[in-house]
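User: My collaborator sent over this chain with a note saying "see what the structure looks like." That's all I know about it. Can you take a look?
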Amino acid sequence: MLFCSLVTIAALWCAQPAGCTEPPTTPKAEQLMAQTRPKLQQELRDKGFTLGQPIFVRIFKIPGMLEVWMDKGRGFELFKTYRVCNYSGFPGPKVNEGDWQAPEGFYSVTAEQMNPKSAYHLAFDVGYPNEFDQAKNRTGSLIMVHGDCQSVGCFAMTNGRIEEIYVLAHDALRQGQERFAVHIFPFVMTPLNLKKFATSPWIKFWQTLEPGYTAFEQSRQVPEISVRNGEYVVASRNHRLAMQHTFEQDR
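Assistant: Without extra context I'll predict from the sequence alone. Here is the result:
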């Protein structure tokens, strides 16, 4: 069985799109994308989007949703929400190779991470482990969003859903987006949900993710996220916040 087991992740454009790396492809992938594009393009037009615009992906383990946002030039707007067919493990980060956990955190995908030859229909590698994961000595590799609706560490979609998501990603990269961000959360990071899950052993880790979620919610711009001293740091348009969140000020 095939196991599914950087960090500045804004939606970046190449200064010279002609110099960007083309996503890899195969005749099979080209055929699948050609079949998918007409219906997808119509849906995009109906919602005011254009195929090839920059994308941003958010995944929520609870309730099992993958969102694709697109940038029309005035900030990102939600294009579509896809139900995740299957993912491995429970809310909480991936820690070790073979733990069958899907990761949580801030990742990015370049053209080289697109996988048209996947054994699971079509796929892209989310980029685990990132610099933060490596600082925490977390192990594993090849964490994918893919098709075939089966998972041993990845986020599995139905084949029809991954075909649409793959086309949106492939065409954005081909038309000049250097990389697209993939933010993976255990749940929607509201104060109510953080309070609901306050007894989890992962609550402190989840509190470090919340500023990245909030920065996007407030600005509709993908924040620049880096790792400093082993912790996430998020830079929004107007200010920089350390994502190593402590709540002493609230006590």
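A starting point for your reply to your collaborator: The first strand starts at residue 12 and ends at 13.
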